[in-house]
Every structure is written in C-alpha cells, then in structure tokens.
Write a structure and sequence with these properties.
α2 packs parallel to α3. The protein has one domain: Purple Acid Phosphatase, chain A, domain 2. The chain is 19% helix and 27% strand. The strands form three sheets. It has a seven-stranded mixed sheet with strand order 1-2-15-3-4-5-6, with helices on one face. It has a six-stranded mixed sheet with strand order 7-8-9-10-14-13. The longest helix has 13 residues. The N and C termini lie close together (9 Å). The chain has 280 residues and is α/β, with parallel strands linked by helices.
C-alpha cells in the first residue's frame, strides 16, 4: 500500500531562510516583530490526483489575525517567507483580522503580494464574519485573491481536473458544502478549504480528498500535561494541528500565524505549511 503522508518541520531563524531558499532575492525582507513562523514541509498522497499535478506545491497560510497582537510587519514577513517557498498554489483558510474593520484593507494589500503559478485561493473564518465578511471578500478580490464562498474552481489539465472547493464559516452556520460541490464530478480529486477542522466529518461524507483548515492556532498556548489551551473541540485534540484523516478524507490543520485572546504563543510557534501533493 502506498504511503499517504510524510512530514518534516524546519525551524528557520530570521535571515537564514532567505539565504537557503532564494539567493536571487530582488527586494529586502520586511522586518518582523515576532519570531519567524516554522516551515512545515509535508508530502500528501492523493489516490485520485491527476498525474499532471504530481509534485504540486501548496503553501497554506491561515489565521493571520492582523490586529494589535499581530502587526502588519508580521503579515508581510509571512508573505515574504511564503513566496520564498515558490508555491504553485496558495491556500488561505480564514481569520484575516480581529475585531476591527480598520485592519481589512491593509492585510488584503499585504496578502495581495503572494505569488503562485496557479493562483491564490481563500475562504473566510469566524472572525471575518464577526467583523465584515463582505468587505473582506471585496478587499481580497481586489488583490486578485479568489475567495471561494460555498463554491468551487477547477484546475484543469489533459490528464484530469483538480477541484478547489471552499465553504463559509461553520460557526456562523454559513457553510454549504453540498452547494459548493454542485456540478463537481464525484470521481475527481477535490481539495476543500474550510476554516474550522470540524468540517472534516461532512467532507468525508461527500468524498472530499483533502481538507485544509486552521482556526485552532494549534492551541496557541500549550502547557505540559494540560496540552492545548485554545482550539479544543468536541473531538478533543485530534484535529488541533497537523495531519489526520477520517475514512478516505485527509486533513491538514495549520497552527496559523496570528494570536487572539492573549498576545503570545507558548510551546506553539506560528506555522507556514508547505504541502506537496503526490500520486501513489
């Protein structure tokens, strides 16, 4: 049986990643107030992946939370590091701002500098719905980011299609996965962007191949013996961070970039996930 998953984490100090990944950088990296995110490189095997997409690199960013706790310089730094990974596709899975609409257009402008051969795809999170989902959608779209709100987009090749599917936030009962999948061929490969990892259950029922989520911050504060303080769900710690699966549906939950509730992370560094899709 073919392997389905492998992963390695590389914690890079500020500046070293620039030398290691891009010796031909044309503009200086922005300064950052916080430690660099951890780069998590992960291979994921998808049984129905068309051969033309074998090796496709997806950079997954989530839970930016631009606010007083996550200044714009941190967002710019994350974008810079993401671009150094030379993604084929970027997936953004929500919570771009916290509490105030004044952060919407600045964070959209920063994320608009993401570069990927096949485009940048996004969904909204619960904090986005709390602030102003329509304005966030407009701001991201103005920066050529495709926001998937209960809809889909096909990446087509001669060997088959890979479907990018996105749903609105589960907490706000705004999600409509059956509607998002309408007209998507059941037998073709599907990647679902869903802010909340609880959506894995419904995704498995609808034959989704891979789910990309955030929301949990990986716990944000992780204590010995206690585990994660933030991000628990009715599934406990099973879907707080990293790779998992339900039946034939795989999921990757990123720890994200920003912070909420308290202005720190403890035992839980921010993360940029770089996922490489593989044919078995």
């Amino acid at each position: 049986m073919a392997r389905r998953f492998s992963s390695r984490r590389i914690l890079r100090r500020r500046g070293l990643i620039t030398l290691a990944l891009n010796a031909q950088e044309t503009e200086p990296a922005p300064a950052a107030y916080s430690p660099d995110p951890e780069i998590t490189e992960t291979d994921i095997w998808l049984r129905r992946l068309p051969p033309a997409f074998d090796g496709l690199r997806i950079v997954h960013l989530t839970d930016i939370h631009h606010s007083l706790y996550t200044p714009l310089e941190d967002v710019q730094r994350a974008v810079h590091l993401a671009n150094l990974l030379r993604p084929d596709l970027v997936a953004l899975t929500g919570d771009y701002v916290t509490l105030s609409p004044v952060y919407i257009w600045p964070v959209a402008q920063a994320l608009g500098k993401l570069r990927a051969r096949l485009g940048v795809f996004a969904v909204l999170g619960n904090h986005d719905f709390q602030v102003n989902p329509e304005e966030i959608t407009r701001a991201l779209a103005a920066r050529h980011i495709r926001v998937l709100r209960n809809t889909h987009f096909a990446l087509r090749t001669r060997s088959g299609s890979l479907w990018m599917v996105g749903v609105d936030d589960l907490w706000w009962s705004a999600d409509d996965l059956p509607g998002a999948l309408r007209s998507v061929p059941a037998r073709e490969a599907k990647i679902l962007l869903c802010h909340n990892p609880v959506g894995i259950r419904q995704a498995a029922e609808h034959g989704v191949d891979l789910v990309l989520s955030g929301h949990t911050h990986g716990g944000q504060v992780r204590l010995p013996l206690v585990g994660s303080v933030y991000g628990r769900s009715k599934f406990g710690e099973r879907f707080v961070e990293g790779w998992n699966r339900v039946n034939g549906t795989q999921i990757y939950v990123s720890r994200g970039i920003g912070k909420v509730l308290v202005p720190l992370r403890l035992g839980c560094p921010p993360e940029i996930a770089c996922l490489r899709l593989r044919c078995p």
